């Protein structure tokens, strides 16, 4: 039985080498064409800002409603990003996981600050941590997408 994967001569080795070079060129072109949708990072930023702004909302269930809505909106943004780019990112690298953790921890820290401001009666000052959350999560979301984009070079 013949094995077509092992080169039997110098011509076959050149053919295999040429195919591998074409594959690398295709991956490089794919990485260049994949761009994050312009609404992706601001969308995640708005989700974080809306969560940070929940303490002054009336009612006991407002925080839970905003959290549920934020999670659903985040899933929707990821699904829409998949539809727009056509690429499903299944594995995060260390840098993307670190940025994701920083986004979650930063949003929770800013939520804590807004809780303190609301308890102090400084409701209008909650806009400051909300804006900081928006900027922080926008930056981290774009960092995550660029990290995932660079990982396309090494997809198997």
From TrEMBL:
Top-level division of the source organism's lineage: Bacteria
Keyword Transmembrane in annotation: yes
Transmembrane segments: 63-84, 96-117, 123-146
Keywords: Membrane, Transmembrane, Transmembrane helix
Record's protein name: Transmembrane protein
């Amino acid at each position: 039985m013949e094995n077509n994967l092992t080169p039997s001569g110098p011509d076959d080795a050149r053919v295999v080498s040429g195919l591998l070079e074409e594959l690398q060129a295709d991956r490089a072109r794919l990485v260049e064409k994949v761009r994050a949708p312009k609404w992706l990072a601001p969308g995640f930023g708005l989700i974080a800002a809306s969560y940070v702004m929940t303490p002054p909302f009336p009612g006991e269930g407002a925080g839970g409603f905003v959290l549920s809505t934020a999670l659903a909106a985040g899933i929707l943004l990821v699904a829409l990003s998949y539809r727009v780019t056509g690429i499903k990112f299944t594995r995060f690298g260390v840098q993307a996981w670190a940025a994701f953790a920083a986004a979650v921890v930063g949003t929770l820290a800013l939520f804590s600050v807004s809780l303190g401001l609301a308890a102090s009666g400084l409701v209008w000052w909650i806009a400051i941590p909300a804006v900081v959350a928006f900027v922080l999560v926008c930056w981290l979301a774009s960092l995550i997408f660029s990290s995932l984009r660079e990982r396309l070079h090494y997809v198997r």
